[in-house]
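Title: Prediction job returns without error message
Component: structure pipeline
Severity: low
Priority: P3
Assignee: unassigned

Description:
Job completed but the reporter wants confirmation the result is attached to the right record. Sequence as submitted:
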Amino acid sequence: MMESALTARDRVGVQDFVLLENYTSEAAFIENLRKRFKENLIYTYIGSVLVSVNPYKDLEIYTKNHMERYRGVNFYEVSPHIYAVSDNAYRSMRTERKDQCILISGESGAGKTEASKKILQYYAVTCPASEHVQTIKDRLLQSNPVLEAFGNAKTLRNDNSSRFGKYMDIQFDFKGAPVGGHIINYLLEKSRVVHQNHGERNFHIFYQIIEGGEEDLLRRLGLERNTQQYQYLVKGNCPKVSSISDRSDWKVVRKALTVIGFNDDEVEELLNIIASVLHLGNVQYSEEESYTHITSDIQIKYLAR
């Protein structure tokens, strides 16, 4: 029995780095991560800290059954998982009656955006629910596609890279049910709007509205269904990405805006701003006798409107 356990440990490594014999060795740390990653074990603890390695593929470890497995159990009773951290923070909040914070950190492409989604999904499924609470849960979950549309972009590292930081505050009532949320974003990479490196794209929303927007909407905004027509969308020479469906993502975002609580007029105003940025990028200038003047009247017409 002990021998087989040692053999398994040699194959899959240890699930908590504090159990490593050579715990001060960086090489041993990396080797343990490598062993576990080869076995699709992407989570490992360092005490109460969770280390995750992005597998860049779907793993069947986020089902409702998995959520139930981690619900209400001791932190070290089951294998390392983002759900264990989520549940531990939730139970600490309820028992200690103090605010709790989960800090997600890592380099570009590490999986921070996905980790925050998994935490929200866990609370949406496992927390107490009423009709009102279900509406709040839906809004919390649907905030993600909207934030990603306006704040994420394809980079050389990955296809859905967050180009902003965010602080997400979820409020719970005395029963432990989520009753509200507050999201503060910061450090938005605004320079991406006017310039992208080769192989990178602008923020998703620009491509979504061009590819997925209804004909009537595009007509009102004065836009064409051709990303190549817009200077701000072709600087990176990568307007289309095989792993991204801008058309279907547009439907998700449009529905999410309604769920969150934007009315039709507010959505129209929002899209007017997006369209005006695209028109602004297409304004052309020429020089005449040391004076600069605009040569593209149609863009000015739409911008003024």
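Comment from assignee: result matches the submitted record. The CA atoms of residues 174 and 266 lie 34 Å apart.
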